[in-house]
Amino acid sequence: MTDAPVKLPLIYRLSRITWPWFTCTMSTGAIAALLSQQPFPFRGLVAIGTMFFIFDAVLFFIFNLMMFIRITRNPRAWLASLHHPNESFFFGAYWVSVALIIYSIQAYGVPRSGPWLIRALEVLFWVYISCSLCVAIFQYQAIFSVERLLIADAMPAWILPAYPSLVTGPLAGVLLKSQPVESGQRILIAGIAIQGLGWTIAFIIYTMYLTRLTTHKMPAHGMRPGMYVAVGPAAYTSAGLISLGRASPGLFPTLNLSSASPTPIPVGSVMAVLGFVSGIFLFLVAFWFCALATITVLRVVRRMSWTLNWWAFIFPNVGLAIACIQIGDALGSKGVQGVGAGLTLLLIVMWIFVMGASLRALWKGQVLSPNNDPGLDDVELVLGDAITTGRNRIY
Questions:
Q1: pTM of the model
Q2: pLDDT tens, 54-109?
């Protein structure tokens, strides 16, 4: 590969976008969400967070436009991408990006607008969880029906179709800050239910992933950043349960759970305690996966070349930082909050580094060009429409 940009028609390069590109908008939106949760606000923080939010929305629009070009140029290949193992799992990244845009609208838009936006966000929430439920059901069903995957290839990316469900808890938690009681009760219950679905699916896939690590070789060097995806399920479930639990006392002060018992039970307080305990319980699970991935990556960092997997450095670990901040807020601990703020700074630096590496790869023709887009060439080859043969694989 030379240092000169690859001379290819612009429309051709634009049509080579794959679902893994939406890990970029996942990570950018996650940074915007993380900045809105900072325990030590300062002048300009909201402006910085808003800039990340706007940039994320612009990127999401551009990627959607590119995906539309891909669909129009090769509709059959696009449909195959929804079940092909090289690309399909990353369809979940698209919907997580949607969730984070809704999250940022709540964080940065509601304080500057009227009640109409609060109502609109409630509607968007119900549309989103309907879509996330459909993704979790139909995409896994399509993959199970059409593909045959090996445990030797198991990676945390297999969890990604459940990721839209896994961010529902944190999304519901932030929406509850402005929702009225009646709609807030419905959002809270739905948030817990969908979060439980996502966590259960992730837990099952955890067993496959750990089986692969104990019985087969470690992932290839370029795929090792993808190990951080395993951090997200525990981290976002931890953050979601804590935030939903903290909102519960205001929504469910007391409740009669049984007609046989006339004594009302402080359900909201019970849910707050359960959410906090469960969140702490899961936090260290997320940290363990983070430490495991970090050590594994550091062992080969000098031999790693850039891939879209690098965006996994950001998004899953944002969940860890948000969970840390949530725990610090619940405990009133400045020390724990400070750790969360430190993680935020580290993740912003990492985002700048990965974005720079991505732009460099784009300029040099190392992506959106033949043989350099994992999944796309393989999908088109299967359909007999390939121009070139794909070399790389992402799982």
A1: 0.91
A2: 999 999 999 999 999 988 988 887 788 888 777 889 999 999 999 999 999 999 99
- Secondary structure (H, E, C), 280-325: HHHHHHHHHHHHHHHHHHHCCHHHCCCCHHHHHHCHHHHHHHHHHH
- Which distant-in-sequence residues (6+ apart) come within 8 Å of 304 by Cβ? 221, 222, 224, 225, 297
Return the residue matching tokens 């139909």. Answer: 138
Q: How confident is the model at residue 393 (pLDDT cuts 50, 70, 90)?
A: very low
Largest CA distance in the chain: 77
Query: In Å, what is the CA distance from 256 to each residue of 190, 204, 253, 284?
Result: 20, 35, 11, 35
Nearest to 244 by CA among 180, 136, 326: 326
Instruction: Check: CB of residue 313 under 8 Å from CB of residue 228.
Output: yes
At 164 the pLDDT is 97
Q: Cβ–Cβ contacts within 10 Å for residue 190, how many?
A: 17
Mean pLDDT (the chain, rounded): 89
Q: Compute φ and ψ for 187, nearest 5 degrees.
A: -65, -40
CA angle 20, 164, 129 (to 5 degrees): 140
Q: Which domains does the chain have, with CATH numbers?
A: 10-253+265-382 (1.50.10.150)
